[in-house]
Amino acid sequence: MSTSFLSMSIAGLAAVGLVVTLGIVSLLTGGLHFLFARPKVHILKSQEGETGFAFGLSWNSSREPAKYDKVKVRLFNPFGSPTQVEVMKKFDAGMSTFARDMDMGPGMLNIIQAQGLDNATVMVEVTSDAGTTHQQQFKARDFVERMTLARETADEFNGTHEIVKEKPFYHTVQRSFISEPLPQSNKTLKLATNPEFAGEFATAGGGGEAQENFAVSKVWIEPGCIVCNACEAIYPEVFEVTDDTCLIRPDAPLDNGLLILEASDACPVEVIKFDKIG
Ligand code: SF4
């Protein structure tokens, strides 16, 4: 076996070993983070003025589901003044890593401007509606400096940790709410003003060959009227369209067959029928 082949084999084994080791370490750290990651309070930049307090809370919400909705900031200042201050505020509950920015009132100013902060501590408590409380203690001076130097706002923090929810998909019945198109009669509306029928209405001044008018003995409406009003618009003395059908007027004149024919031709569902005399 040559020396170079032996070297390549050792290098290959070393590379494989490195990859496996990194994989195991990654799995272990991920698992450890999942199991032991503690909630953490992040001090953020408030935009609520000198009595404002902005904070973020991160924790493993899949392992510890909770709705945090109350924050309490407490100053313990045994060698300074004032010796103790407590401010508390409720807020819209956060169910996973979130930030809030609130006006805590004048008590917050008493904490920030207290005398003797170097020997004091600040406790931030975030409590859930179920009573779970996460406490984080800060040296008071460090707490105030963090508030002063913070650059990230609550909105920015929320933007960074925003949970992207999947767009809900609603199954709907495949049904159209648009009515079916009207049936086509394949006829063209016969109007005296339509050049196509100029000849038929020559007697009305359209020119060309005149079409002799005729009388009808009977005109009626078969079932299926869609109350479109076309017939009444053409010959209102004969047709009366109601809310749900069309009626023939009792005293309808029956001597102008051409106009009745025109109305019949205009009916999109072809329910106007008549008997021609002769
Ligand atoms: S034209 Fe036909 S469908 Fe329209 S209102 Fe008259 S009878 Fe009814």
Structural write-up:
- By secondary structure, this protein is of the alpha+beta class.
- The chain folds into two domains: 40-160, Sandwich (Immunoglobulin-like), CATH 2.60.40; 195-276, Alpha-Beta Plaits (2-Layer Sandwich).
- The protein has six helices and eleven strands.
- It has a four-stranded antiparallel beta sheet. It has a three-stranded antiparallel beta sheet with strand order 1-2-5. Strands 8-11 form a two-stranded antiparallel sheet.
- A hairpin with a 4-residue loop joins strand 6 (121-128) and strand 7 (133-139).
- It is elongated, with a radius of gyration of 44 Å.
- The model is unreliable at 25-36, 169-180 and 204-209 (pLDDT under 50).
- Iron/sulfur cluster is lined by residues 221, 225-231, 239, 241, 246, 266-267, 269, 271-272.
SSE diagram, text form:
Elements: H1 3-36, E1 40-44, E2 52-58, E3 68-76, E4 84-94, E5 98-103, H2 106-112, E6 121-128, E7 133-139, H3 140-149, H4 154-160, E8 216-221, H5 230-234, E9 239-241, E10 246-248, H6 257-266, E11 272-276
Antiparallel strand pairs: 1-2, 2-5, 3-4, 3-6, 6-7, 8-11, 9-10
Residues 221, 225-231, 239, 241, 246, 266-267, 269, 271-272 line the site of iron/sulfur cluster (SF4).
